[in-house]
Amino acid sequence: MFSRDTLSYDPIPLPDRCEISDADMQDAAVAFFEKMRRRHTVRDFSTRPVARDVIETCLRTAGTAPSGANHQPWHFAAVSDPKLKLRIREEAEEEERRFYAGGAGDEWIKALEPIGTNAVKEHLTVAPWLIVVFAQRWGQFEDGTRYKNYYVPESVNIATGFLLAALHHAGLSTLTHTPNPMRFLTDALGRPASEKPTMIIAVGHPSETATVPSVAKLKKPLEEISSFF
């Protein structure tokens, strides 16, 4: 964060140094991997409520993500109001019907078949929380003067990853949803023209009968997703 009159470089000693042994490093890495490999995208949510303070803490975690020039070009709109969730669902489903009626193209629809999705997005009203992620394309000083944000997509994507990990660590399930176009979210949530919605994250507990598509368990092996030099 910065202001118009405070743009000097002021280094301070590293405040939080993680000092662990090499052996503990591997143990920690394995423990986190085992935790994250149990994360599953679900579409069947329970109506069990989730306390606001849990959502707030997870959003604080997202806010610790690195960003271009430390501008932190993101905003997270957390929605629990049933009427607003219904409005979001109705407008999202309108876009989804166009998508599945031919807007997506045959190849994209074919690729989605193993996932089992369609234009009905019940999770948008059943899940206790929706978190809409906005990318701030530019910022403004108090006098209204604009300033440029840098590496906005990269920064927002990293923060969203932090958020998904935090929600899973808190024992919650999520579903990322990207209706296209998403401009209706800007209007529904009263966000400024400088912000672009990038994603809706449904958050809650899975229902007792929740399922996941079997294909979701197929992950590429390490040798396919990485190279060492």
Automatic annotation (TrEMBL):
Domain Nitroreductase: 37-205
Pfam short name (any one): Nitroreductase
Keywords per UniProt: Flavoprotein, FMN, Oxidoreductase
Keyword Magnesium found: no
InterPro entries per record: Nitroreductase, Nitroreductase-like, Nitroreductase/BluB
Name of protein: Nitroreductase family protein
Organism expressing this protein natively: Ruegeria atlantica
